[in-house]
Please model this.
Amino acid sequence: LTERRNALRKRVIAWLRREAKCFPSRTINAPNTFSLDDLEDSPETIALPLPSMFTASLRREAYPASVLDAERDLRWGEAHEALVKLRRKLRVRTFLNRWRRTNVRGQIPNTRMRSLQAQVDEHILVHVHCYRHAHRQYLTLIDPTAANSRL
Model:
């Protein structure tokens, strides 16, 4: 784990240096998303700034169209993947409910089954959150006013 964190830390630092060289106007006006102390503790929690985090005018002036298209494709894929995982977990929940109704009798087995169903429900909420975030960011890239609407 330590080796992976060190490798990720090096990649994050390289990304931020490359970004500062390529997009100086973006780094000057960028919101402060992290500190160097965060990089030392857990680099996997650092939110790397992407074009969708900024206003439309700053995106147009700081990023070329190819970068915006790349993030749009990334967000589309992220939303699609979250939907696939969400559908799978919903099918699992349906199967668990059907199986419980036909095969589980008694308080102890029902309690165990309910804890399993609660775990699946937590996974469903995580995938819903991932989808909504990716969809909101995708809409921000397409139409900045659409991201404010409720999903």
Observations:
- Helices lie at 2-22, 24-29, 36-41, 56-62, 65-103, 107-142.
